[in-house]
């Protein structure tokens, strides 16, 4: 029998650099409240959101991704030609095909890497981190660019009380590469497809094709059940990620959860009994919920503000439409 060579990869993987892009237009709560019969106070109290960023027409998914990725590559000290794989987590690329990862890879000047999109909603970035780590350790790639990007303002119904104030735009990116020591812990991930209707595009593209007069499809969410699920079930997932990484809450330096709601962030920290010393990302106040982009945006901000420093541990927990979730402990680059 003929045997074939098996792939061989690096012993470990880690995040080498982070970058992000914040759209220029700041949208305060006051701009949205009239259309949804709400108030600045209600939005702040129930979600923690004070303002969010919405992209201008020039700030496309491609443009924001390229800006975030260039910054991540520069900080990682990795040249475009060294990138073997580009993963783009997004739900707001408006073409069914091709994936936007290929044109982003081309604009970045990479040398024809594998490039494809990940459809795992708000958890897409953490799915990408896990895949990147496995690709590098399995020998399929040496450097992987993982981008989380959204222009959710294109998919938001400004008259929907449950979502108009939540969703926002932005991009974050990391370069993942080989490491001598573990830099990305085991992933804890999964799905609950029986609850897929809780967050969904209001109409599928096939139906929309014959109902164009109804306007563009938009994201619809039954917020309260999602809120309760995220606040309780995700604490167990986060704890499992700590356990599988072999650390306790006392050994954790930073907590960077998906920025969905400030009350969810607080509830998770409480349920997991994170000590006061753990630095918590609260980017949602200024950025709203940017889905797949929220974790790299929040991490980049913590690093820029000196709140997260190289070598520290950080716990990611992400959850969203599907329902899907993913969590892992990483070492800050
Ligand atoms: O990123 C993907 C994952 N997504 C999430 O994790 C989001 C999870 N969900 C949430 O963040 C929260 O459910 C929301 C912020 C969306 C809503 O907060 P809530 O505490 O779950 O509010 P609720 O839907 O239970 O509504 C409470 C009350 C209701 O009034 P009554 O029945 O108590 O009189 C609503 O009619 O608030 C009312 N309400 C509003 N009032 C002012 C609902 N939306 C609004 C609004 N402004 N925009």
Count the beta strands.
14
- Please tell me the overall pLDDT: 96
Strand content: 15-25%
Uncertain runs: none
The helix/strand class is alpha/beta
Tell me roughly what share of residues is in helical segments. 25-40%
Annotated CATH topology of the largest domain: Peroxisomal Thiolase, Chain A, domain 1
* Strand and helix order: EEHEHEHEHEEEEHEHEHEHHEE
Can you tell me the CATH architecture of the largest domain?
A: 3-Layer(aba) Sandwich
Radius of gyration: 19 Å
CATH class of the largest domain: Alpha Beta
* Molecular shape: globular
> Which molecules other than protein and nucleic acid are bound?
oxa(dethia)-CoA
| Terminal residue distance | 45 Å
What is the number of helical segments per DSSP (H or I, 4+ residues)? Answer: 9
User: What is the domain total for the residues?
Assistant: 2
């Amino acid at each position: 029998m003929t045997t074939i060579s098996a792939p061989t990869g690096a012993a470990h993987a880690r995040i080498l650099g982070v970058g992000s892009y914040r759209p220029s237009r700041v949208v305060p709560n006051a701009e949205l409240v009239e259309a949804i019969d709400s108030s600045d106070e209600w939005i702040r109290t129930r979600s923690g959101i004070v303002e969010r960023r919405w992209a201008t027409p020039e700030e496309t998914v491609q443009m924001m991704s390229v800006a975030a990725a260039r910054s991540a590559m520069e900080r990682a000290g990795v040249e475009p030609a060294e990138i073997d794989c580009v993963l783009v987590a997004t739900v707001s690329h408006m073409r069914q095909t091709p994936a936007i990862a290929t044109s982003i890879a081309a604009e970045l000047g990479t040398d024809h890497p594998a490039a494809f999109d990940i459809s795992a909603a708000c958890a897409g970035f953490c799915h990408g981190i896990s895949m990147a780590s496995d690709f590098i350790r399995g020998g399929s790639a040496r450097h992987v660019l993982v981008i989380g990007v959204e222009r959710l303002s294109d998919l938001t119904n400004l008259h929907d009380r449950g979502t108009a104030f939540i969703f926002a735009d932005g991009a974050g990116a990391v370069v993942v590469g080989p490491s001598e020591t573990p830099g990305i812990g085991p992933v804890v991930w999964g799905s609950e497809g029986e609850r897929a209707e809780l967050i969904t595009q209001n109409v599928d593209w096939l139906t929309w094709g014959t109902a164009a007069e109804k306007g563009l499809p938009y994201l619809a969410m039954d917020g309260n059940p999602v809120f309760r699920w995220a606040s309780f079930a995700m604490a167990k997932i986060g704890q499992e990620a700590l356990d599988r990484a072999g650390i306790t809450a006392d050994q954790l330096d930073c907590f960077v959860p998906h920025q969905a709601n400030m009350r969810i962030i607080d509830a998770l920290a409480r349920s997991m009994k994170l000590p006061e010393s753990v630095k918590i990302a609260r980017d949602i106040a200024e950025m709203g919920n940017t889905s797949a982009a929220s974790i790299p945006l929040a991490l980049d901000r913590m690093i820029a503000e000196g709140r997260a420093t190289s070598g520290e541990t950080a716990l990611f927990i992400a959850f969203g439409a599907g329902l899907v979730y993913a969590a892992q402990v990483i070492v800050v680059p």
